[in-house]
Amino acid sequence: MSSAPVSVSALLKSRIRTVRDWPKPGVNFRDATTLFHDPEAFRATIDAFAEDCAKQEIDIIAAVDARGFILGGALAYKLGKPFALVRKKGKLPYKTVSEDYHLEYGTAAVEIHADACKAGDRVLIVDDLIATGGTLLAATKLFRVLHGEVIGVAAVIDLPELGGSKRLRDVGLKVHALCEYSETE
């Protein structure tokens, strides 16, 4: 007798670590790095993203510094697509375009290489988590400056109470999150 398959969301939530009061009191940090240490969960994550991507026409996978790189790199490899980096300001060696944005607990800037995409390229942006949506919105603006078409964002975790996924949908982006958490979980 075999057990019923566990949903991807349930599997991932059983493997994601929550660190209470980090990086400051009152914040419940959802630590997706535990997925990278678990081959079953990591494989399920990439396979779930790839299944969703098969329903879309995508030219480039882009990912946000730093945990997004792990996810986006694996997804780009699986799909045989080019991979573009969205890095913290000052980390890329070539000509860049930059965008400032607000985090849930501060401000920052991200940038991409000026040749990260061509006009008309369909871009999917990957990150580990959607909180306020600021990082993904900034990344979207960067690709749009280069006349790329950001078709959506993919994340392992959505924190809908913080409003990020709504902000992303409000600017016309498809949002795919594999699981979500409330602040009380």
UniProtKB/TrEMBL annotation:
Gene3D superfamilies: 3.40.50.2020. CDD domains: PRTases_typeI (cd06223). It is found in: Cytoplasm. One of its GO terms (molecular function) is AMP binding. Catalyzes a salvage reaction resulting in the formation of AMP, that is energically less costly than de novo synthesis. Belongs to the purine/pyrimidine phosphoribosyltransferase family. This is Adenine phosphoribosyltransferase. It comes from Nibricoccus aquaticus. The gene is apt.
